[in-house]
Structure formats: structure tokens, C-alpha cells
Amino acid sequence: MAEAADVDVDDAPPKKKGGKGMLIGLLAMLLLGGGGFYATFSGMLALPFGGGDAEEAHQEPPEDHGESADVAFVEIPQMLVTLGPSARSRLLRLSATLEIEPGREEEVTKLMPRVKDVINSYLQALDEADVERPAAMARMRAHLLRRIRIVAGEDAVRDLLITEFVLQ
pTM for the complete prediction? Predict the structure, then answer.
């Protein structure tokens, strides 16, 4: 027993402090998490399981109505929208047509000022870089269609057909 008491505490290996490694790991985790959030939130990166802009950009293919499909169209008057102050191309000219349910032409035509307002509001918020991306047209079309359906009714508007899109 006397020998057990003579054991020196100094002979035991010193305890390592894991604070530095833990701090570096935590910092790396925060940086990567923040970068991933920013990339997803800004639209640079799409979520693989849906949600957010990736879901909106991927539209379901239009239903096959066959040869005898009833369809109606309402033209949206040509719009000229001013882009942000940092854009080289200052103006965006857009012409589009709404594909709607037959018999709802008058209802959608009455709402045209609201439809033009949501289109104008969305396009003015865009930056020139947003317009020049490879998938920009599909993404903008999906965003605009979603907003128009909110105004005109989900069951009234089938599709948005962009007939002219010019940066000036």
C-alpha cells in the first residue's frame, strides 16, 4: 500500500486541452453553414429535395389536351421596365400572353392592371446578372406565372407565354 501512495502525479501524461481544435471546428462549421445558406437563399444553389426557387423554376409539363383542347389567350400589353441603377442595359421590353381557361377572358382582362403591376414589380427588382443567367428565362417565367396566378386565380391562368424579351 505504501508503494501505491508513492506514485507521482507528475508521471501521468498531461491532459490535453481540446479548446483550440474545437474552436477551429466550430468556426469552420459556421462558415460552411453560412455559405451554404447564402448560396441557397440567393438562388446560386438549388435544393435537391425541392422547396424555394428550385421548385418554382421546375414547372410541371403542360397537360396534353389533345387536338380538341379548348384554350383562350389574353395578351398582356407590351411593357418597358427600367432595370436597377448598376445595370448596363437600362431597359427591358417584355411582351407576353396568358393562356387561360375558356370563358374567363373578361375576368382576366379586368384584372390586367394588377397583372401588369406584379410583372412590373418583379422585373424592376431584378439585377442585370439575374437576367443574363443561362436558366433566367425559365426562372423568371415561373416566378411571374406564380404571381399572376395569385392575382388572377390559380384555376384561371394555365400558362404564361413570353413572346418578346429584349434588353435595351
Answer: 0.57
